Amino acid sequence: MAYIRLTTLLLLLIILVRPQTRAQGFLHASGKQIVNEKGQNVLLRGVGLGGWMLQEGYMLQVNGQGMQHTIKARIADLIGEESTNAFYDAWLANHTRRIDIDSMKAWGFNSVRLPMHYALYTLPVDKEPEAGKQTWLDKGFRITDSLVAWCKANQMYLILDLHAAPGGQGNDLNISDRDPAKPSLWESEANRQKTIALWKKLAERYANEPNIGGYDILNEPNWGFEDLANDKNGLKEKGNQPLKQLMMDITKAIREADKKHLIIIEGNGWGNNYNGILPTWDNNMALSFHKYWSFNTTGSIKNILETRDKYKVPVWLGETGENSNVWFTEAVQLLEVNNIGWAWWPLKKLGNNNPMQVHSNKDYDKVLAYWGNRGPRPTAAEAYNGVMQLAAALKLENTTIKRDVLDALFRQPYSQTTIPFKANVIQNGAVVKSVDYDLGRNGAAYFDKDTADYHISNGVRGGNQGRVYRNDGVDIAADHTTDSYYVNHTEAGEWLQYTLNVVKAGHYQIKLNCNPAKEDARLSFLVNNKTAKQIAVPKANGWQALEINDIELKKGPNNLRIYIDAGDMSLGDMQFTEVK
What is the dihedral angle through the alpha carbons of 56, 364, 479, 461, rounded to the nearest 10 degrees? Predict the structure, then answer.
């Protein structure tokens, strides 16, 4: 009954607020809503292009010093400055292209958040030929112009986000590419003035562009203004006056050139500490907050909901993600029932829990091994080949599109139904991989007891322990010798469901590759919701073929479930043989 009530409420919300799926004129704040020029509520469903203009070490699986400027220096140490520049040119050219934006639109996104690195638009203050003057660089503006055109062609909104401000806006160094040996944004008036000037330049350029959804003027500031030594990220900050003053000065500069665009502000402490900042100082503003690794309960967003109500200002979740599909579906349900738009993070990286997965290569792995003190220094040729292959791997056609992630974002929040993950055509000799269970929610397509990373709320980093192949709670491991995957770390009560498309009705034998970790392991097979077999799994040293005989299958779609009755085990492929 709880599910029925929630589904009814979600569907009612869609009817009432009519979230727009395409850009229709400038976005505006209207009370607690973001609306278009027709006054219609706009529910932004977007994704952030993290890693494009600004690399963060974890996206490239770089441990330790993960700021972009240190990554660049380490690459230059291996291949030289000229080759490093060639790599970064290829990176910028390949990471996001028209095909990416076209695909995002087709998948269901209606907006894009661009994390900008200031150094693509203007020189650092210590490189300016004349102190106090701003030298403008063409590259960043050209990239942004192209992205605007691609979004416009797809009727999508583009939100400009200053992710790396001059000097860096916090003590989380990676997110802003900050060099702690130089003055931060908060320690340099020149950096402050350059930040203001950059936003005025952007406003002058895009003042009349309706497909720009808004200006997210400073990403995740995290600085302890009152007690830097004990509160370096500003989580306990009470006043936030330097942050408020800078955002007000930026707003003033923008409004000198642009009266139309929505201005989005973020609080201290990675976007969530608004102490001393409100009320807003402009009549066309929205608040952004960021949410990671916490429970998806109303209580988890209670503060931002109360802030929205108190100040009558729209809110937008500018960054979230980096979790399991279960968490994604929960989060979308929570946000949309509260009429909060969102931008997932990021579109692509070396990792499993985003819409696109970028793949490494053997030579880049050698680079990572060297940087991690796990291998010898690669040759210049190996390193160059590794990073250039990595840049090529960014192209959409070379990535793996994570259909399970997209399904969790767009279909599963509003549907308990399951759909096949693979075709699983069954005829004599057919093989079905255990990892190719159906797409759907936990409890519908599968059941797993440890489904997501909630470490902010309870300290537990759950989900798929192997972090490979799929992004549900089911634990999956890679077999690098055969370039294949298998389910592992099962628990009693868990189960997996498969839709089988049977070519010929009949009786079949299933041989399931199985590797039990405990002696009392037991399985049950259910076919079309009827118990077909209960099987004891004998303890063995390694993989064994477990035979399940006389399984009756009808022609066409069949539903097969494997229940873990007892035991921790690994499950591999299933082979189907017709019994004559």
Answer: -10
| Class of 417-579 in CATH | mainly beta
| pLDDT of 12 | 37
* Alpha-carbon gap, residue 563 to 149, rounded angstroms: 51
Element (DSSP H or E) covering residue 456? helix 455-458
Q: Which two tokens stand for residue 568?
A: 């921790």
**C-alpha to C-alpha distance for 533 and 541, rounded to whole angstroms:** 24
Query: Which residue carries 């790396």 as its tokens?
Result: 164
List the end-to-end C-alpha distance of the chain, in Å, as a whole number: 46
Residue-wise DSSP of 522-550? EEEEEETTEEEEEEE----SS-EEEEEEE
Could you state, in order of their start, the residue ranges of all structural domains in the chain? 16-52+96-358+394-406, 417-579
Q: Is 242 exposed, middle or buried (0-12, 13-18, 19+ CB in 10 A)?
A: middle
319 residue type, one letter: E
For 523, phi then psi, to 5°, come to: -125, 155
Opening angle at CA 368, ends 365 and 369, nearest 5: 85
Q: Taking CA 158 as the corner, what is the angle to CA 152 and CA 162, rounded to the nearest 5 degrees?
A: 145
**The CATH number of the domain covering residues in 16-52+96-358+394-406:** 3.20.20.80
Cβ(329)–Cβ(413) under 8 Å?
Answer: yes
The strand pairing partners of 202, in sequence order, are none
Place of tokens 């952007």: 202
Residue 436: helix, strand or coil by DSSP? Answer: coil
User: Please, how many CA atoms are within 13 Å of residue 12, restricted to the half-sphere of its CB?
Assistant: 7
The whole-angstrom separation of Cα 11 and Cα 15 is 6
Query: Around Cβ 486, how many Cβ atoms within 10 Å?
Result: 23
Q: What are the pLDDT digits (tens) for 455-500?
A: 999 999 999 999 999 999 999 999 988 889 999 999 999 999 999 9
